[in-house]
Design goal:
Chain lengths: 244, 196
């Protein structure tokens, strides 16, 4: 499933098939985010993870509704290499430490959904961003950059940073948001939300300081070919895994 | 039968899955006796170097040392490879196996740590482990500490300076990266090890 600005949902197909196709096409990693994350959906998630992981030999991250160490363990047992936590981590940051303690920081990604706060600037005049939870529905009042720093302190291995303003639009990543977080933490930052044309990817690496970029819509719906994109990025000097 | 050593350090299932895919007979075990009887041993590991202390406590260290003396092929992955060295700065009180000299150190401040993601190898083409894997091949890393370059280094990687990405000496092998997460290149490496 893929959301557009977190509101309309379009069905893209079976995750296990999509993951295999993207891996074949040259994806460096696959992220499966269960955005329904209702109680009924939990059992199906582990089954989906198992089926997806079976023939995947690139890093596989699973997130969406992971609220406890036990739930994380079930997802790891089903075949995830890394898990992603969002709402539950913000509500209880020690969850990050618990999971990292058991599986290592490199297995714990903290996902942050952030939205620009209009007309609200930093003392240096820069934009400010607020973290949202519950599939991007609930504002938390927390500064996204400050939360990223705390997540790192608590043991997160990477930050998956999604711009809610740009998500699903294909209008380009939010480079200001990405740069603010990338400069605030030492751990890798994966930019997400808004990936579209090649320039948008070039920008998020060069101007946003992203360590990695995540895109979904443009690949799921056949709008871009992953290998073409990687080739183009490599040709402008952004190191890419090639051949893939 | 290959023994995939379980010492409660991270997630073993990815390695098992890769071996299953290669139709290799492997068993996940924490039993020193099974390890002692294995034809080959793989020691995976993610997480903290101090976790290798469990190997001492459970008798697994002795079983591994004995097998290695008998020439049983041994492959250490990630922290498993670091443990083959003398020690690691990450847990100075935990001794490594000392099969390779040197101390594992953290990355310099100027680079982001951990080193996470795909990076390229500079390969020694005499390596048996890396047969068919050429310089420039990408593999997947995720680590905060790295092993120094030394005589047994058969693959180097550049990140905050060069470090040992793979070591090989007789029947001892170590890889800093995760072959089970490195796509076709990783599977090829595992196949090379299993085929010895």
């Amino acid at each position: 499933m893929k959301g557009v600005q977190f509101q309309q949902l379009r069905d893209a197909g079976d995750p296990a098939e999509l993951a295999a196709a993207h891996s074949e096409a040259g994806a460096d990693e696959v992220v499966l985010l269960d955005i329904s994350a209702t109680h009924e959906a939990r059992a199906t998630l582990c089954d989906t993870v198992r089926r997806t992981a079976r023939e995947l030999f690139i890093p596989f991250t699973v997130g969406g509704g992971i609220r406890s160490l036990q739930e994380a363990m079930a997802v790891f047992d089903a075949g995830a290499d890394k898990i992603s936590v969002n709402s539950a981590a913000l509500a209880n940051p020690s969850l990050i430490t618990q999971i990292a303690g058991r599986y290592g920081s490199q297995a714990v990604i903290v996902a942050i959904d952030a939205k620009r706060i209009k007309l609200n600037l930093n003392t240096d005049g820069g934009a400010r961003f607020e973290a949202y939870v519950s599939g991007g529905r609930r504002p938390t009042g927390r500064d996204a950059v400050a939360w990223a720093r705390e997540a790192e302190d608590r043991g997160a291995g990477e930050v998956l940073l999604t711009s809610m303003d740009r998500d699903g639009t294909g209008a380009g990543f939010d480079c200001d948001l990405t740069l603010a977080v990338s400069q605030a933490v030492r751990i890798p930052v994966i930019a997400s939300g808004g990936g579209g044309d090649t320039q948008s990817f070039v920008d998020v690496f060069h101007r946003g300081g992203a360590d990695a970029a995540l895109a979904a819509s443009i690949f799921h719906f056949g709008l871009r070919h992953l290998a073409d994109l990687k080739r183009e990025l490599q040709s402008v000097g952004i190191p890419m895994r090639w051949p893939c | 039968m290959i023994a995939l050593v379980d010492y409660r350090a991270g997630n073993l299932s990815s390695v098992k899955k890769a071996l299953d895919h290669l139709h290799v007979d492997a068993a996940i075990t924490s039993d020193p006796e099974l390890v002692a009887q294995a034809d080959k041993i793989i020691l995976p590991g993610v997480g903290h170097f101090s976790a290798t202390a469990v190997l001492d406590e459970t008798g697994l260290r002795s079983a591994i040392v004995e097998s290695v003396k008998r020439g049983i092929p041994f492959l250490g992955i990630c922290v498993g490879m670091q443990w083959m060295f003398d020690s690691s700065e990450e847990a100075p009180e935990t001794p490594g196996l000392g099969l390779f000299p040197g101390r594992c150190e953290r990355f310099p401040e100027r680079v982001k740590s951990p080193h996470v993601g795909w990076n390229t190898l500079v390969c020694d083409d005499r390596s048996r482990l890396l047969r068919g894997i050429s310089t420039g091949s990408f593999v997947y890393f995720t680590h905060s500490y790295r092993a120094p370059l030394e005589k047994a280094t058969v693959a180097r990687c550049e990140y905050g300076g060069e470090f040992s990405a793979a070591v090989e000496k007789d029947r001892l092998f170590g890889v800093q990266f995760h072959p089970e997460k490195s796509g076709a290149t990783g599977l090829k490496l595992l196949q090379n090890f299993c085929g010895l």
